[in-house]
Design brief:
The protein is 35% helix and 24% strand. It is α+β, with helices and mostly antiparallel strands and 354 residues long. It folds into two domains: 2-125, Creatinase/prolidase N-terminal domain (Creatine Amidinohydrolase, Chain A, domain 1); 130-353, Creatinase/methionine aminopeptidase superfamily (Creatine Amidinohydrolase), CATH 3.90.230. It has a six-stranded mixed β-sheet with strand order 4-3-2-1-5-6, with helices on both faces. α5 links the parallel β5 and β6. The chain starts with a helix and ends with a strand.
Length: 354
């Protein structure tokens, strides 16, 4: 498998014997295992999944080609494998090993060099396979279908929480196994909070309402945002909405192989800043997603990753005016050989609830 080969190349470059994976998402990406406990051991001669009795049959079903090592305690099993393979150095995922765990390993394996590292698997995850793209595409379709069914039911008098629950129900009804994150429904002044939590606020005339949501299909996430208005929009509603839409469309057109996240972020940021609203766009333009809803690369001022075919990013500028409301518009985009494909199909004209 290409993923294993790439990790073994890294091991050789680092002059290390073993790579240990403890991040559950990376574990699933490399092995296909969806259980909640286990370590992955990759050496030049062995690829093994270490887990306990609860997951023995699951590993057999989900992880063809992987050796199953049943553990009683992880340290005992690691000590045994270290002896079997004559291991002198292990690279581990430093963000996912606790200080307590590392101290235990250092005491148990004093002759083994333990090296913390990061990004080995996350770098591989940046470029999606055709199968991964299809999973994300289906998750995006479910979101589009659910939102289309939700829109005609929205009216003043409903609460944010009622609408959020309905949206989640619709996505699950259409086959989603979970939400990518708790749906955001922010109305009126709450729509100026980029990560507003839906509450008991009642939708009222003159409100912007921001919907940011996504779901999971076969383990993979989607993410989209749309903003609507309750009642006939006033001049300020239209000004802000048209500004964000312009920034979103111009940045979207720039998504292509060879461009960097910082370059694309700058396109949207300049449009919003030139209109005098730069101080009200305080987050990055977008992010990748996959098995997690926030992955790399990012479309941001500080990410100079060059986009490549197979990468997926969101494009989601926003303007947030405290006390009045906010607008965010987000599409999900896959980078192709000659440009990009938008996976989100919901219209972007301002939807007005009469």
């Amino acid at each position: 498998m290409e993923r294993i080969a790439r990790i073994r190349e890294r091991l050789q470059a680092e002059q290390a014997d073993v790579f240990l994976i403890s991040n559950p998402v990376n574990r699933r990406y490399i092995t296909g295992f969806t259980g909640s406990a286990g370590l992955v051991w990759i050496s030049s001669t062995k690829q093994a999944l270490l887990t306990d009795f609860r997951y023995v049959e699951q590993v057999k079903a989900e992880c063809p080609g992987w050796e199953l090592v049943r553990i009683e305690t992880y340290s005992d099993t690691l000590e045994e494998l270290i002896g079997q393979e004559g291991v002198r150095s292990i690279v581990f995922e430093e963000e996912y090993v606790t200080v307590k765990q590392l101290k235990e390993w250092q005491e148990r394996f004093p002759s083994v060099e333990l090296k913390g590292s990061s990004g080995w698997v996350e770098t591989l995850r940046m470029r999606k396979t055709p199968e991964e793209i299809e999973n994300i595409r289906r998750a995006a379709q479910i979101g589009d279908e659910a939102f289309a069914e939700l829109l005609p039911t929205i009216k003043s008098g409903l609460t944010e929480q009622e609408i959020a629950l309905r949206l989640e129900f619709l996505m699950r009804e259409k086959g989603a196994s979970a939400m990518s994150f708790a749906p955001i429904v922010g109305s009126g002044p709450q729509s100026a909070l980029p990560h507003a939590r839906p509450g008991d606020r009642i939708l009222s005339y003159g409100d912007f309402v921001v919907f940011d949501f996504g779901c999971v299909w076969n383990g993979y996430c989607s993410d989209m945002t749309r903003t609507i208005v309750i009642g006939e929009p006033e001049e300020q509603h239209l000004l802000i909405y048209d500004l964000v839409l312009k920034a979103q469309m111009e940045a979207l057109r720039a998504v292509a192989p060879g461009r960097t996240g910082a370059e694309i972020d700058a396109i949207a940021r300049e449009i919003i800043s030139e209109a005098g609203y730069g101080d009200y766009f305080g987050h990055g333009l977008g992010h990748s997603l996959g098995l997690e809803v926030h992955e790399n690369p990012r479309l941001s001022k500080v990410d100079n990753t060059v986009l490549e075919p197979g990468m997926i990013v969101t494009v989601e500028p926003g303007v947030y005016l405290p006390g009045f409301g906010g607008v965010r518009i987000e599409d999900l985009v896959v980078v192709t050989e000659d440009g990009h494909e938008v996976l989100t199909s919901t219209f972007k004209e301002l939807y007005v609830v009469k």
